[in-house]
Amino acid sequence: METRLDVIVVGAGPTGLACAIAAKRAGLTCLVLEKGCLVNSLANFPRDMVFFTTSELLEIGGIPMTSLGYKPTRGEALKYYRAVAQAFQLRVNLYEKVESITRVDGDFHVRTQRRTRQSCGYRTRTIVLATGYYDQANRLGIPGEDLDKVFHYYTEGHRYYNMDVAVIGGKNSAAESALDLFRSGARVTLIHRGPEISAAVKYWIKPDIENRIKAGQIAAYFNAQVIEIQPTTVGLATPEGVRRLANDFVFAMIGYHPDTQFFESLGIEIQPLTKQPTHNPKTLESNVAGIYLAGVVLAGMKSNEIFIENGRFHGTVVMETIAQALSAPSASP
């Protein structure tokens, strides 16, 4: 077990990095633990993705972000966050998964496992959970979902040239994936349980996908659900009855959710309907003293309420609260 830290941040996304920057500025000893790579969620975005927002709204730590276009690309964002982590010399342990957090004599003891399967332990006075939700894909709950031809993340389309590909969903991820697959030479079928493409799809993507569907370049089934996935086919329930389509690959782009089981294992109360963790909205401290929350995890299933744009400010709120609490006489060792 290492020297006692002031705070451990779990998650090295933009919000987690913003927390670490705020901790450094507050004079707190801080370690960031991340089970994947730096800004792991962004790394899993499609390679050619363009953000919905502008560069300045993705900035953290007061370091300007530049982009060639009005809106930054995934590649530009990854380069930016690497540069920020380097500029502030943040202590970030990558590919190190948190296995357990327990409280002993007022401190938190964190057990982890590194990529090499080495077990490590840390002692800290406080915890900040900035784990996001993109690592937990929503499940279809149907036969065949675990076949190796089924994916919940999309990177690029070249691998699927001349293949029959089904894309499930009707929001941004599904629309962008379907378009990229089509332009990479795949035979694409979009399947959505709703009556039409979501109105929330990016304004430059929505007419594109709708026009491709209207022209018959992308097949589409609305008010439909995939009920079974087989090695060479997918079965659909449609208003006209059950259909079976030839299929080589499936992209289930139906959303993601926070890891509420992990939160509950720490004693954090989860609201049953919204899946939001109980917390003080002013300090962002959870119902478990000493454990704070930052970023989209605060929103539960209402993930459209918190983005990088507003979650990046949580770090300052949390670290100012922690610094004040640790400096109080009762917090002294």
Ordered list of secondary-structure elements with their pairings:
Blueprint (H helix, E strand, L loop, with lengths): L4 E6 L3 H12 L4 E4 L6 H4 L30 H14 L4 E2 L2 E9 L2 E8 L4 E11 L20 E2 L12 E5 L3 H12 L3 E6 L13 H9 L4 E4 L2 E5 L3 E6 L2 E6 L2 E4 L7 H6 L25 E3 L14 H4 L2 H14 L6
Parallel strand pairs: 1-2, 1-6, 2-3, 6-15, 7-14, 8-9, 8-14, 9-10
Antiparallel strand pairs: 4-5, 5-6, 11-12, 12-13
Helix pairs in contact: 1-8, 4-5
List its traits:
FAD/NAD(P)-binding domain, 8 helices, seven-stranded mixed sheet, five-stranded parallel sheet, single chain, 23% helix, 333 residues
Structural summary, described in words:
The protein has 333 residues and is an alpha/beta fold. It has two domains: 5-136 and 256-331, FAD/NAD(P)-binding domain; 150-252, FAD/NAD(P)-binding domain (3-Layer(bba) Sandwich), CATH 3.50.50. 23% of the residues lie in helices and 24% in strands. The protein contains eight helices and 15 strands. It has helices spanning 14-25, 40-43, 74-87, 172-183, 206-214, 260-265, 308-311, 314-327; strands spanning 5-10, 30-33, 92-93, 96-104, 107-114, 119-129, 150-151, 164-168, 187-192, 219-222, 225-229, 233-238, 241-246, 249-252, 291-293. Strands 1, 2, 3, 4, 5, 6 and 15 form a seven-stranded mixed β-sheet that branches. Strands 7-14-8-9-10 form a five-stranded parallel β-sheet, with helices on one face. Strand 8 (164-168), helix 4 (172-183) and strand 9 (187-192) form a beta-alpha-beta unit. Helix 1 (14-25) packs parallel to helix 8 and helix 4 (172-183) crosses helix 5 (206-214). The radius of gyration is 22 Å and the shape is elongated. It starts with a strand and ends in a 6-residue tail after the last helix.
